[in-house]
Design goal:
This protein has 137 residues and is of the alpha+beta class. It has two helices and nine strands, in the order H-E-E-E-E-E-E-H-E-E-E. Strands 1, 2, 3, 4, 5, 6, 7, 8 and 9 form a nine-stranded antiparallel β-sheet that branches. Strand 5 and strand 6 form a beta hairpin.
């Protein structure tokens, strides 16, 4: 009786089970905060297409960058688990961009938590206001 034959089969079986467990995990495990996101709604109100608001998270630099239309903004952030905090708020243009962009900056600057699932990101601030994003290509 060759014991190594049984050990080899047990290792192969364990590797197959491990691979299947990874493959069958929820899609939300494949989504990370990192990358570029497009805003789809602000407090459950759809964003007009002309605003084209984006956010991109770089965890290596703890940096958030994005655009409101053609106008860029940036800031630094910290995130652990599902908590997020913009360290010094967002550095945005000094020009008034309208009520939707201003509410976006206000909500983003006071962000408290986020939820990721199915290529969607929802950021919630201390007042319960929400920013909903989809993963941008």
């Amino acid at each position: 009786m060759n014991i190594f034959k049984y050990i080899k089969k047990a290792i192969v079986f364990a590797l197959i089970l491990f691979s299947l467990s990874l493959a069958l995990q929820s899609p939300s495990y494949a989504v990370t905060l990192e990358g570029k996101w497009k805003l789809t709604s602000l407090n459950n109100s759809p964003i007009p297409e002309q605003f084209k608001i984006t956010a991109a998270f770089d965890p290596d630099e703890s940096l958030i960058t994005g655009n409101v239309g053609p106008i860029p903004y940036f800031g630094s952030y910290k995130s652990t688990d599902n908590k997020i905090e913009l360290s010094n708020g967002v550095i945005k243009p000094l020009v008034y961009l309208g009520p939707e962009p201003e509410e976006y900056f206000s909500t983003l600057s006071s962000a408290q938590s986020y939820d990721l699932s199915n290529q969607k990101l929802i950021i919630t601030n201390y007042s319960g206001k929400k920013l909903s994003f989809v993963k941008a290509e």
